[in-house]
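Appendix C reproduces, verbatim, an entry submitted by the partner laboratory led by Prof. M.T., so that reviewers can inspect both the input and the predicted structure.
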Amino acid sequence: MRESLYRQVDAEYALQREKDLNEQEARQAEAEAADPQIGALAEHRMERFRQAAQRMFRDGENARENSEALKKEIASINAEIRARLKKAGLPEDYLQPRYRCAKCKDTGFVGEPIRERCECFLARVRQLAVEREGMGVNANENFAAYNAAIYPENALQKRPGHTQRSYMELVKNRCMAYVDAFPHDPRRNLVFIGAAGLGKTYLLNCVGNALLEKGVPVLKVTSYQLTERMRAAVFEHDWDGFSAVLETPVLLLDDLGAEPIINNVTIEQLFTLLNERELNGLHTIISTNLAPVELTARYTERISSRLMDKRSTVMIPFYGEDVRLKG
């Protein structure tokens, strides 16, 4: 996938450069129509550059003096062009090249003599990678469609004074408060813990859709999909998929604990994911069927301590009966 994405973005940049050139030529034509002398000055400037290049080969000993003289002459020509543009009612920089990215000038590369991909190019590759796989968020599962009536009115022993239905109303309200406060909630991460069929994935999607409505980039993956991205990064050196989950402003990781453990991949890369996202102040929301002690046993203390760090994470337990079994 990585090579095809690079080819696609290279093609996009080639089209953008053609667009840049066409727009610059159109501005040049407009300026010359307003004042034909602008075109004559531009041609004279180009001719002076050609002459200077020829003179440099013939008279290398006086290269510095010739260069200084050329700079002064070009500056004078440029000043007259700017003055004429202004008089014609056009901006003084109207004939300057315009690029989407001033750093790479829409080539996708930076650096001399060693060329590297520009960050704008890499960001576009990551964006396409996400678009190809989709955001992963079920659009039908949102707060507006949330129906507390699916939960029974059974009393919860672990939450005295609450039924499963009333407790899930509290959980929903906490999730809505998280969205309302985004991105200023001091605890950026949520971890939903509980058995299957209690609504963890539904609320994960509710949060994701609410943030998407606010214009926040969100990416949702299952733990199995995450493992595939990590495996591709380690064994195939295809980092696009893993880079996307590392860098997305909000990551929804569903069903942590259901994925296979791959030696030298799962534990190591999961730690990298959690650690890098925490260091960069990004938001992560996780659902898991595993209890805290099971998370530690499966992923080691180093990972579970990050998952359950109370300074940055709100742990939300889910209790009650499996509502899927009740239809």
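Strands lie at 109-110, 116-117, 189-193, 218-222, 250-256, 283-288, 313-317. Additional entries are available on request from the coordinating office.
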